[in-house]
Known about the structure:
By secondary structure, the chain is α/β, with parallel strands linked by helices. It contains 9 helices and 36 strands. The strands form 6 sheets. Strands 13, 14, 16, 17, 19, 20, 22, 23, 25, 27, 30 and 33 form a 12-stranded parallel sheet that branches. The longest helix is centred in the middle third of the chain and has 21 residues, at 227-247. Bound molecules: uridine-diphosphate-N-acetylglucosamine (UD1) and calcium ion.
Amino acid sequence: MTHTELAIVVLAAGKGTRMKSKLHKVLHPLGGRPMLHHLMDTADLLNPSRNVIVVGAGKEQVENSVGDKAEVVVQEPQLGTGHAVQVTKDALAGFKGRVLILYGDVPMVSQNTMEDMVSNDADVVVLGFKPNDAKAYGRLKVSSDGNLDAIIEFKDANEDERAIDLCNSGIMALNGESMFDLLDALSNDNAAGEYYLTDVVEIANSKGLKCAVTMTSEQEVTGINSRSELASAEKMYQQTRRQYFMDEGVTLIDPETIYFSYDTIIGRDVVVGPNVLFGPGVEIADDVTINAFCHLEGASVGEGASIGPFSRLRPAAKLGAGVKVGNFVEIKKADIEEGAKVSHLSYIGDARVGKNTNIGAGTITCNYDGYFKYHTDIGEGAFIGSNSALVAPVNIGDGAIVGAGSVITTVVESDELAIERSKQRSVAGWANKFRKKQQEKKNK
Ligand code: UD1
Ligand code: CA
């Protein structure tokens, strides 16, 4: 990689008005993680020695989100992209390496692209692309020898310039030694009345410095300004995640309907049915089957386990190897040990279910009294009959059997039968007599 030091500057002082949100635009998530973090994590792969983020409003939000990973600088008022970089002067005092300027709302730039830019030794390196529709992007004027002569903003461009199909992504790598001299020479004498960062190109050329273009795809430099652009970006992001998992040996029955988080981990030979959502913090071991319509977050699933259809695994659900969790089962903060089964219509929360235990249909761990949460401990090889309510805190020993329909409120020792329901009464012939009586009444 590069021999010189690297500083990352992320511009994020734009108003973000079109988002119509209390949340700072760059903190809106893609795959469950703020777009700013996607961008910074990619930039981190280049080992920058400084990270600066330029914000307008919402400094605290951004600071809280990035912690000590970056210095957050305020640009107020916002007088244009050139001015935004100018305000990093103090933060970058004494810095002589390369400065890579990124946009907080353009989060999908790849590591390769960033490396291409910072390893180019021109004083100004601009990231160009050829979009399908050049819209109002700035246009790159490149001379026949490949030097970048100027960037013309759309508002300021004439008809010939607007016909250029090579566009400015806005992303730039600058030489830290000459950068602030170039910025000091900017003026706001243009159609927008702003200090354009793009004008550093002409200024650098006039000083005999070198300006170059590196290229990328339209997809990488897609910006996010509205909820609908956020949705499109999410779509692209999910597409890359699906491809990644299939490349890694995961079968996705209907990829378009399966959603991943940035941190989803899935082993080999896992089969994922349609309409499955992986929220943050999910880890799936090898040979797991996830049937249709499961919703998982903060959960881990052991080797060879099977879940769904229609299972919900909530945070701290931990399923051991070979566990089976079936339809309409919700598991929260519970260890379901190896080989245990919770096959139908149950809620298991704040609990342990021991090895090879069978939880009957409709079993509920009553873990909450409206104020506090309580633990249910079920041993190994136990059998909980259908429609049982286990009122926590309660312990059920190894090998115990709970009769169907019981409300269990006190300890069940190992190998005991616990049954809590009134004794069944049977009256021979009663039903026939009843029907006859009622029919006669109706006929009157
Ligand atoms: C800019 C480029 C244009 C390029 C386009 C790509 C300039 C003058 N123009 O256009 O050539 O094709 O990006 O999308 O640079 N920002 C600040 N402070 C400001 C203004 C902007 O931090 O005072 C930040 C914004 O938050 C955003 C980025 O800079 O992340 C770009 O600003 P935006 O207004 O979207 O770009 P344009 O000026 O339209
Ligand atoms: Ca009962």
